[in-house]
């Protein structure tokens, strides 16, 4: 995979799409990959779904993300998302 240098405005400053630039928001062409869960309001999350989401957020799950050519979530974001599952 080759990173493409981009600038949010004509003339720069340019960012080359490194992990640090993406996480800091300097790279203008990035987005999260979302997982949507069908859960009734006020009802608990299905235990199987909860364990799947924990796997996605785990080191093993994030290693799969990297293997598929994407950047992993930062440790801060992983902790924030895990807190939502508690």
- Helix vs. strand class: mainly alpha
3D shape:
elongated
Helix fraction by DSSP (H/I, runs of at least 4): 40-55%
Largest beta sheet: strand ordering:
1-2
Largest sheet: 2 strands, antiparallel
Topology pattern, helix = H, strand = E: EEHHHH
User: What is the count of helical runs?
Assistant: 4
Radius of gyration: 16 Å
List low-pLDDT spans.
none
What is the assembly state of the chains in this entry?
single chain
Q: Quick one: how many beta strands?
A: 2
- What is the domain total for the residues? 2
Determine the N-to-C terminus distance.
Answer: 36 Å
Mean pLDDT: 92
Percent of residues in beta strands? under 5%
Describe the structure.
The protein is mainly α. The chain has two domains: 1-31, no CATH class; 32-86, no CATH class. Helices cover 43% and strands 5% of the residues. It has four helices and two strands. The protein has a two-stranded antiparallel ribbon. Strand 1 (6-7) and strand 2 form a beta hairpin. The chain is elongated. The N and C termini lie far apart (36 Å).
Short description:
The chain contains four helices and two strands; from the N terminus they run ββαααα.
Which properties best describe this structure?
86 residues, mainly alpha, two-stranded antiparallel ribbon, 2 strands, 5% strand, elongated
């Amino acid at each position: 995979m080759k990173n493409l240098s981009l600038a949010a405005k004509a003339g720069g400053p340019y960012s080359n799409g490194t992990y640090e630039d993406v996480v800091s928001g300097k790279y203008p062409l990035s987005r999260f990959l979302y997982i949507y869960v069908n859960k009734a309001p006020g009802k608990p999350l299905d235990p199987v779904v909860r364990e799947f989401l924990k796997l996605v957020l785990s080191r093993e799950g994030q290693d799969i993300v990297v293997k598929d050519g994407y950047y992993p979530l930062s440790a801060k974001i992983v902790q924030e998302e895990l807190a939502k599952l508690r």
